[in-house]
Amino acid sequence: MCGVFRLSAHTSPQQALLSLSSVSRLTLNYVLDAQDRPKWREPEGAGLPPSALAIVSPYDISARYARRGETRWKGYLAHVTETCDQDTPSVITDVTTTKAPVHDTKALPCILTNLHDRNLLSKEHFVDGGYLSVALKQQVAREHGIGLVGPIRARSTRQSRKGTVFPREAFTIDWDKKTVACPQGNISRRWSTPPSLAPYVTVEFSPDDCRQCPVKAACTRADARKVVFLPRDLHEIQSESRTEQQTQEWLSRYSLRAAIESTISEFVNGHGMRQCRYRSHSKAHVQHVLTAIAVNLERIDVHLPAPPTRQPRTPTALQSFLDWQRIPRPRSWRVATHPAG
User: Fold this and answer.
1) Distance between CA atoms of 298 and 22, rounded to whole angstroms?
2) Residue 84's pLDDT is what?
């Protein structure tokens, strides 16, 4: 891994191309110093490459580093889908293996496509909050005709974290006139949709109105307040979802998803799925699929009817004579011909 490689005379062209491809990927972890020598990247120097590109193992160049809360690991991420009908055993219907840094919202469309190709899509799909976004919820309903059930997270801003500050929900939106009214009745002066990856609408109020406002300290620290929200169709979905998920009916329905946590525990503690047996993305996926098959067999076996009890065989004449004479008889001739000791 010094940047100098020599190809032997016995190396095939295919192997040579594979080696060069590996070298180009490994150079992401190195930087050339003043003497044009390769040097390992450090955070305080040239900076580390992003987790999606950084090579974390010379033995498995497709493994990546990831962090979720206090959990840190190098490898892959498995997404498990199972049924949640009350009258039937919970069967795992799909296992998708992605690289560790891939966000859950990027993996969900692939999961739904796999289920659609096998005709296993249900009317509702219960997901964790990390898998869900307003745009994705609309996309899935349009493409697959199913509903995603999960919590839409509230936006974490200074206004939403402090109870004494006006949140975005305190402003009244007039979609037809493209104006927004603040809690004090002032009307916005500018409505724009700047180009960006997320289709947000930005509304600005007049600095003259905000400077003279008696409750400015409870609204903004800038000269004028800016309000950012989704377009009309996505904003309505967001508002309806946040209102619905506060009801007891929605909480009772969403409690079905809690069963997947026991499935994850079964994978980890019962089958050691935290540890990859083989290297490479494809082989790790095979391990995850085989583990899911084993879990399904265990669950189906529990719900199968019990086998009929075996009736004892009618004793032979010799066995009846031995019992009549109270002569003990071993269960097998092996014990009689080869006694222990």
Assistant:
1) 41
2) 85
User: Which DSSP helix (H) or strand (E) runs through 77?
Assistant: strand 71-82
Pair of tokens at residue 336: 């009689």
CA 112 to centroid of chain Cα atoms = 13
Distance CA 172, CA 154 (A): 18
pLDDT digits (tens, 9 = 90+) for 244-292: 998 999 999 888 888 888 888 888 888 888 888 888 899 999 999 999 9
Structure tokens at 40: 């390992």
Q: Which phi-psi region, left, alpha or beta, contains residue 240 (left: φ > 0; alpha: ψ -120 to 50)?
A: alpha
What would the two tokens of residue 211 be?
């400077």
* pLDDT at residue 167 in the model: 81
**No. of helices (H) and no. of strands (E), the chain:** 12, 12
Contacts for 261-268 with beta carbons within 8 Å, 24 or more apart? Answer: 263/80, 263/82, 263/90, 263/92, 263/295, 264/80, 266/295, 267/78, 267/80, 267/291, 267/295
